[in-house]
TrEMBL record:
Residues 1-24, 257-277 are annotated as: Disordered. It comes from Eucalyptus globulus. Residues 288-484 form the TLDc domain. Residues 1-10, 257-275 have a biased composition (Polar residues). It comes from the Eukaryota. Pfam families: TLD. This is TLDc domain-containing protein. InterPro entries: TLDc_dom.
Length: 540
């Protein structure tokens, strides 16, 4: 078959070049197996229809959403994704796709290339699939080459459908290997990502009312070039959803389409994650944060989007102020001993607590830490990120100028006089007494300062319309999620068990430590109460 000819010593230079590029991407063994599974034995070529079915995103069950019902054209867009990928990247001959064209097509869409080229490829597939579904997207491409410039513009609805398409691709790659079941695709609320693109790309984006912005009704134009720049800066791993989808589907193309439907337990729980409880870390927010990470943390965060057991997700919740109680002591008793990465989310609002309009304009910020917390009176920690999560998403990565990542200071156990006491609470970025984020010890107020005070993280606002002066806001909810996996949780349980054992030992009084009843303090006190005037020997 065509795949076997790849080892022929008489292979053409074109074939050797294509195979070398596929090997550099680590996909050559997978491509050989996929070609053997898809190729017609009579022609030694892959029929176009077979490849389109392999890369299809057909959803038989109704699509539900955490927000408004998706447009009718979105289902058609997903149905045309497979055909669009084949049309854009694979050049078929009369009898189908030969081995060389099959490998070259994969290299065009998933080979090693610049990040901007991958985003352009993603936009090309989206535009073609949307146009086939009857949803016109105003994007123009100078040529068929991957490095061509992208012209035209997008509107907020286009951005939402593009992000939902990427979410569906990731969802499909996660449940692709599971057996047949009764699953339905669930689309999370990702309005924070859409608003981030709107504010960054639109000419008047900073003047928009983000709390009442209508994504489906807005006709704000976002230039394609600015959108590509936003995607590279804010969600750099977004194209990975597309490349991972192609890799997973080609790697499992031998399974029939009837067997590729996700299982009831998996997708049912995926649907219930969004409605399992009013957590600050919703699947949409978790996905947005994961798009900024490239290491193992990304997979840990994605477990909050795609997981087969909601109880397992609850185990990763270390602290929630409405559940465990507010205050630094309650917070510390639940997070102490956890040495793995942490994700902390804070929901709050600024303004008068008695005004309803200020409470409606609540926001969510986040902090991603690479290590556990310690009680210190100075900054410490390894590089971590700050996030503006809702209503608009922004990620502020380490700048490399300073290393003031974490400040977590409790009241000292031994009260001593301090002429200049250090503030008690949690801080991130900035300097002591001038932190970019500071939470007081009661977890009632949070202070957010302008990015000018913080040289540790990249600049930018943490909530809409943040001014230069410090903002003293009210806290509604605090959540801390453990991202260290099972080992970190077991290590914390071991530390807590040991601390509990020490506490119980300190509470016990061993009477055997006293020499006798005559020498015990209890005997002395009873004698004094019975006859306080009696003469007693005084030890010198």
């Amino acid at each position: 078959m065509g795949a076997s000819s790849s080892s022929d010593q008489k292979a053409s230079p074109e074939q050797r070049e294509a195979e070398s590029a596929a090997a550099a991407a680590g996909a050559l063994p997978m491509l050989r197996k996929a070609f053997a599974d898809l190729a017609d034995p009579r022609t030694s070529a892959v029929p176009v229809a077979s490849l389109q079915r392999c890369l299809s995103l057909r959803c038989d069950k109704p699509i539900s959403s955490a927000t408004r019902v998706p447009p009718d054209s979105f289902s058609g867009l997903l149905e045309n994704v497979g055909a669009s990928i084949v049309d854009v990247f694979f050049v078929a001959e009369k009898g189908g796709l030969s081995w060389v064209e099959f490998v070259k097509g994969y290299v065009k869409c998933c080979g090693r290339m610049a990040a901007s080229m991958v985003v352009s490829n993603l936009l090309r597939v989206f535009a073609l699939a949307a146009n086939k579904a009857g949803h016109q997207v105003d994007l123009q491409f100078e040529s068929d080459e991957a490095d061509c410039k992208v012209g035209g513009h997008l509107v907020p609805t286009d951005v939402l459908m593009l992000l939902w398409m990427c979410w569906t691709m990731l969802w499909s790659s996660k449940v692709h290997k599971l057996p047949r079941g009764k699953a339905a695709l669930f689309l999370p609320d990702i309005s924070c990502l859409v608003l981030s693109a709107v504010v960054s790309c639109a000419d008047n984006g900073s003047s928009l009312n983000l709390w009442n912005f209508d994504i489906f009704g807005s006709e704000v134009q976002l230039p394609a070039g600015k959108f590509v720049a936003w995607a590279l800066a804010t969600v750099p791993t977004l194209p990975d959803c597309y490349s991972q989808f192609i890799h997973e589907h080609l790697g499992n193309c031998s399974i029939s389409q009837d067997e590729l439907e996700p299982s009831k337990s998996s997708s049912g729980d995926i649907t219930s994650v969004e409605t399992s409880g009013p957590h600050l870390l919703t699947p949409g927010r978790a996905w947005a944060i994961s798009l900024t990470a490239r290491n193992a943390l990304r997979e840990e965060i994605l477990t909050h989007c795609f997981f087969s057991n909601c109880d397992k997700i609850e185990e990763n919740l270390l602290y929630r102020s409405s559940l465990h109680g507010k205050g630094l002591n309650r917070f510390w008793s639940n997070t102490e001993g956890y040495l793995g990465p942490l994700l902390m989310l804070v929901s709050g609002y600024s303004g008068d607590s008695h005004e309803a309009n200020t409470r409606d304009k609540k926001w969510v910020i986040g902090v991603l830490l690479q290590q556990g917390l310690e009680s210190r009176d100075h900054f410490y920690g390894s590089p971590g990120n700050l996030y503006a999560v809702d209503p608009i998403f922004h990620a502020y990565l380490p700048s490399g100028k300073e290393k003031n990542f974490i400040y977590s200071h409790l009241h000292p156990s031994a009260r001593v006089y301090e002429p200049h006491p250090k503030p008690v609470g949690l801080g991130f970025g900035g300097t002591i007494g001038n932190e970019r984020i500071f939470i007081d010890e009661d977890f009632a107020r949070i202070t957010l300062r302008h990015h000018a005070v913080d040289k540790t993280h990249q600049p930018g606002p943490l909530f809409p319309n943040q001014g230069y002066l410090a903002t003293d806001a009210f806290i509604l909810e605090v959540e801390v999620w453990g991202l260290g996996g099972t080992k970190a949780k077991e290590a914390q349980a071991s530390v807590k068990k040991r601390e509990q054992l020490f506490t119980e030992q300190r509470r016990k009084v061993d009477l055997k430590t006293f020499a006798s009843w005559e020498d015990s303090p209890e005997k002395m006190m009873m004698d004094m109460m019975n006859d306080p005037n009696s003469v007693r020997r005084e030890d010198r």
